[in-house]
Write a structure and sequence with these properties.
The chain has strands at 2-6, 9-11, 17-24, 32-38, 45-51, 56-58, 66-71, 76-81, 90-98, 101-112. By secondary structure, the protein is an all-beta fold. Strand 9 and strand 10 form a beta hairpin. The N and C termini lie far apart (37 Å).
């Protein structure tokens, strides 16, 4: 499974960004897709997960601001990030779990700064 993330960038506080993660490979469906983030000197943090049945989970600091969604026909996950804060600045990595195996995409930088 290969994961291709896109959509990062520089945004002012209070702004929005949308990340995309497209999965490819010999797969029919992906049970779990999601996003993690990491800043220098800190551990990688789970941001949001989504199952192909529609269940979602978020880290507390992004609840109400971020929304994860999926297009299962395209094996693509999205992370809509609203009301961004400077503390959301990080490298965001796409994640997928298939048959109990974890896969990671390359990170995309999100910088929230005025």
């Amino acid at each position: 499974v290969q994961l291709q993330a896109s959509g990062g960038g520089l945004v002012q506080p209070g702004g929005s960004l949308r990340l995309s993660c497209a999965a490819s490979g010999s797969i029919r469906s992906i049970p779990i897709m999601g996003w993690y983030r990491q800043t220098p000197g800190k551990q990688r943090e789970l941001v949001a997960l989504s199952s192909n049945s529609g269940s979602t989970a978020y880290v507390g600091s992004v609840k109400g601001r971020f929304t994860i969604s999926r297009d299962n026909t395209k094996n693509t996950a999205y992370l809509q990030m609203n009301s961004l804060r400077p503390e959301d600045t990080a490298v965001y990595s796409c994640y997928a779990q298939v048959y109990g195996k974890s896969y990671w995409g390359q990170g995309t930088q999100v910088t929230v700064s005025s």
